[in-house]
Design brief:
Layout (H helix, E strand, L loop, with lengths): L10 E4 L3 E4 L9 E6 L4 E4 L5 E6 L9
Length: about 60
């Protein structure tokens, strides 16, 4: 998941009970921000390239 261009770096907000990122986020083009809500858990199995990352819910550190 990437922003579409450097001039249009996007924000991504996910509001879900369970959020799972199976791959890199923002690697081709970085995001302005990535935010999750506080309602559940987030699992991250790749790298994140974003100016601001705000995981408001619980998330485990996973080794890849």
């Amino acid at each position: 998941m990437d922003a579409d261009a450097a001039a249009n770096n996007r924000t991504l907000t996910v509001n879900a009970t369970t959020t799972k990122f199976d791959a890199n986020v923002g690697q081709g083009q970085g995001l302005a921000s990535l935010t999750t809500d506080a309602a559940g858990t987030t699992t991250l199995q790749g790298n994140v390239n974003a100016n601001l990352v705000d995981f408001k819910d619980a998330w485990p550190w996973l080794a890849t």
